[in-house]
């Protein structure tokens, strides 16, 4: 049976805590536990500013691991 994920949170919840979620050459990798923590902190921070699920947030960063992790975290909390 094919598993269906409806949110980024659903997808992230299936990664093992110590398994690699993001990596880039010459950079330390980010585990699923660390990425989930980043998503949680980013969501809390955005919510503290009154930004929620249907609010648009623009991301302006160069392509790379920082952009990838920012996209995952912000898209989990708002429309990006």
Order of the strands making up the biggest sheet: 1-2
The count of helical stretches stands at: 3
The helix content, as a percent range, equals: 40-55%
Number of strands: 2
Task: Estimate the strand proportion.
Answer: 5-15%
Point out poorly predicted stretches. Answer: none
Distance between the termini: 31 Å
Q: Would you kindly provide a written description of the structure presented here, covering whatever features stand out?
A:
- It contains three helices and two strands.
- By secondary structure, the protein is mainly alpha-helical.
- A two-stranded antiparallel ribbon has the order 1-2.
- Helix 2 crosses helix 3.
- It starts with 7 loop residues before the first helix and ends with a helix.
Topology, please?
Blueprint: H1 8-13, E1 20-22, E2 30-31, H2 32-48, H3 65-77
Antiparallel strand pairs: 1-2
Helix pairs in contact: 2-3
Keywords:
80 residues; mainly alpha; two-stranded antiparallel sheet; 3 helices; 2 strands
